[in-house]
């Protein structure tokens, strides 16, 4: 059923807050991760297809576009993981006062950033170890 | 929707009960909880593997533990993904027919992708 009633919150005049931004980002990263899970399947299929297909896929991952997608993917994983845990605590009825919500929100941003950079450091060390 | 001679209560009832909503909510949380450790394990393994060659992958997946955990990950991941995408579709698509078709299409796709992943793993270990 469609009504002409105004929608709330009215996005155009709504000032973004940490809480709403993280909520939207949780959904966006969820959608991004859906594409990422297709990469996992592509990787598994390439493995079953044999060495040629497998190394072709690895070659794509090492291209600039591949590295960019992997970076977005890994950040999305860590953000969705950390913020998902935050949601699970809320579902358990914990951490619901405003101070804690903001503290956990900033912690999620920091943790997902640190985890993403750490993982790429490991990747760089592995790359350096190979050459 | 065309105007119908129905009271608001009757039309609300016609939209169905909310009884299955809590089950969807619960399964989304349970699958999230299962995915947390699996994801950390997979991300680390994947990072090491893509810095290696095919030989390394075929040895890794041949280990029963890795095969079992990867299959588990694929199943729960695509399950969690279909639940999550369903909520997003239901929130943002307002035409009932398109909404229903999109949800079903996403569920079919998730099912097929999960099976494709599992079959590919089985092919490596048989």
Radius of gyration of chain B: 20 Å
Largest interface, with Cβ-Cβ < 8 Å? Answer: A-B, 36 and 39 residues
Proportion of residues in β-strands of chain B:
under 5%
**What class do helices, strands and sheet pairing of chain A give?**
mainly alpha
Report the CATH superfamily of chain B: Fumarate reductase/succinate dehydrogenase, transmembrane subunit
- Overall strand count of chain B: 0
Structure explained in plain terms:
The complex is a heterodimer of chains A (131) and B (126). Helix content of chain A is 80%, strand content 0%. Chain A is mostly helical and 131 residues long. Chain B has helices spanning 8-14, 21-50, 54-62, 64-92, 96-125. The longest helix of chain B has 30 residues, at 21-50. The interface between A and B is large, with 36 and 39 residues.
Keywords:
heterodimer, A: 131 residues, mainly alpha, 4 helices, 80% helix, B: 126 residues, 3 helical TM bundles of succinate and fumarate reductases, 83% helix, 0% strand
Question: Can you give me a brief rundown of this structure?
Answer:
The complex is a heterodimer of chains A (131) and B (126). Chain A is mainly alpha-helical and 131 residues long.
């Amino acid at each position: 059923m469609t009504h002409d009633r105004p929608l709330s919150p009215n996005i155009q005049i709504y000032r973004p807050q940490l809480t709403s931004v993280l909520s939207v980002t949780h959904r966006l990263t969820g959608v991004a991760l859906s594409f990422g899970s297709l990469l996992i399947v592509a990787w598994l299929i390439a493995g079953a297809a044999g060495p040629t297909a497998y190394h072709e896929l690895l070659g794509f991952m090492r291209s600039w576009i591949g590295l960019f997608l992997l970076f977005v993917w890994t950040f999305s994983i860590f953000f969705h993981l950390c913020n998902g845990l935050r949601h699970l605590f809320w579902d358990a009825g914990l951490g619901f006062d405003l101070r804690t919500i903001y503290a956990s929100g900033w912690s999620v941003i920091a943790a997902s950033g640190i985890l993403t950079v750490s993982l790429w450091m490991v990747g760089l060390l592995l790359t350096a170890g190979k050459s | 929707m065309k105007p119908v001679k129905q009271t608001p209560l009757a039309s609300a009832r016609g939209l169905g009960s909310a009884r299955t909503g809590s089950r969807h909510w619960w399964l989304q949380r349970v699958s999230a909880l299962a995915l947390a450790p699996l994801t950390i394990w997979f991300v680390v393994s994947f990072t090491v593997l893509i810095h290696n060659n095919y030989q390394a992958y075929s040895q890794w997946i041949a280990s029963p533990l890795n095969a079992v955990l990867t299959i588990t990950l694929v199943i729960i991941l695509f399950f969690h993904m279909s639940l999550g995408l369903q909520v997003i579709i239901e929130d943002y698509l307002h035409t009932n027919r398109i909404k229903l078709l999109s949800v079903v299409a996403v569920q079919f796709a998730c099912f097929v992708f999960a099976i494709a992943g599992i079959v590919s793993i089985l092919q490596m270990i048989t």
